[in-house]
Amino acid sequence: MSYLDRAKELAPAIVKDRRVLHSKPELGMNLEHTVDYVYNRLKEMGYEPQRIGGGVCALAGVPGKTLLLRADMDALPMEEESGLPFASQNPGAAHCCGHDLHTAMLLGAAQILKEHENELKGTVKLMFQPGEETLCGARAMIDAGILTNPSVDAAVAFHVNSGVPAGAVLAFQGPTAASNDSFTITVTGKGCHGSRPDEGVDPIAIACHIHTALQELQARELKAGEIGVMTIGSIHGGTTFNVIPEEVKMQGTIRTFDNEVREKLRARMQEICEGVAGAFRGSAKVSFEPAYAVPMVCDRELAAEIKDSLCELFSEKQVRFVDKSFPGSEDFSFIAQQVPASFLVLGARIEEKEVYGQHHPKVQFNEKCLPVGAAAYAYAAVSWLEKQSRKTQEEG
């Protein structure tokens, strides 16, 4: 029986897992029910799971090369408006990004891998991760040792997409997702009466000059082939019409696909803010949020190997490379920073309904993609380990 056929047999269980998780969404690193559910399901399958870094880890196979399969588990801080009978029962939390599907698919893959454990030519490490939306879960699990004992040689992750035809698989190679650095600029002047600006230092005027000056970074300091976006999304200062305030706060984000560009923008931004503010007799301080993401770059060789293996499982029409990257951020980037990684999108569009994008309160996902994702996770691991084993034998 093929991996896809077995996944289709397991579809009722995978759907059940998804709906249980969907109805009880949890946020960030605090996934008590979700972690307990995943832990217990893995125990039922015969695994010896471990709680690590706020998530769950389990191993299948034998000593050898190790491939990590990652699924994120956290929800979004919003109200669900899907109208589904298994919609969120937790006010202020909703699975509107599809992480419940990822978790259910990897549980399905775990069942298949356990059934074929004696055929594995190495180790599969299952990583059920918290805190993707807050961009801190992957780092927490890395710090807790998810990439060691045994050491991980490569990693694979899937993400569903409500706008892509159900069952289609899109593979990325090279620069894939943008970095994400959220920042606050605090501009300090000297408050005074609005009729006597000469007695103060106007932080609102300084903030305007800073905003204009920052645009020059993209226009004049990045090379033609470099991509970097800096956006100021919030400016707040003052409380009334006739008082120049003491302080203005500006908030925004930096997105890039290259770590050198990222570091350049961060450094120059601080220089510009401090310099412009100083020129107008004020001061400016730039602070970056602790939650951030580095650019996600997929290993081209691994991406090709995973794509080829999935073409064996499905068809070449169903699996294809995507030439463009996406401006959103993904904390799988921290895994990809440490080991060769492959990131794939799995289509989950419902054709007969209006399509809403991820993070929309009315978004729905086609559950027909669940066995496809489970089979893809499992077969990608089995196939990659088998190829690595053959390479080792040939080299030996």
Automatic annotation (TrEMBL):
Superkingdom in the source lineage: Bacteria
Keyword Ribonucleoprotein: no
Cofactor(s) this protein requires: Mn(2+)
CDD domains attached to this UniProt entry: M20_Acy1 (cd03886)
GO process annotations (BP): diaminopimelate biosynthetic process
Segments forming domain Peptidase M20 dimerisation: 182-275
Cofactor note: The Mn(2+) ion enhances activity.
Native organism taxonomy: Bacteria, Bacillati, Bacillota, Clostridia, Lachnospirales
Record keyword Kinase present: no
Organism: Hungatella hathewayi
Molecular-function GO term, any one: metal ion binding
Ligand binding (Mn(2+)): C97, H99, E133, H159, H359
InterPro entries given in the database record: Amidohydrolase (IPR017439), Bact_exopeptidase_dim_dom (IPR036264), Peptidase_M20 (IPR002933), Peptidase_M20_dimer (IPR011650)
A Pfam family it matches: M20_dimer
Protein name from the UniProt record: Amidohydrolase
Swiss-Prot/TrEMBL keywords: Hydrolase, Manganese, Metal-binding
